[in-house]
Amino acid sequence: MLGPREVLARYHQAMRDKSADELAELYARDAVHEFPFTAPGFPPRYTGREEIRAGYRAAWGASPVRVAEIRDVIVHETRDPEVIVAEHTVVVAVPDGADAFTVPGLLVLRVRDGLLVHVRDYMDGFGLSSARNAISR
Partner of 2 at 20 to 30 A CA spacing, among 10, 35, 82, 99? Predict the structure, then answer.
């Protein structure tokens, strides 16, 4: 059974692979993934593994960018063995040689029986939205 740090490593790999299926398989069937700092074009939450899969498949499929690197990962343990807090910086590569950009983020992951049951995803949604708008010009 995977612990929270192993789930985080696989979560990051799914991001690099841009694989909604790899990501969704890390979640319990009834998991919740929340975006507390949502921005235009981003939902406030996904409920259930299949909604998570569909949401990420749509978002990643519609975007020409890819995750080139995830760096500055710092994991904070909590008193609850199911919960970790992870800081990271995602380096996003842009097609056609445009400059890459970075998106800082923080994840609060609750892992039970080796699966994510709750995620609070604090990404810089406005920065991501601004970068997305700049790419589409």
Answer: 35
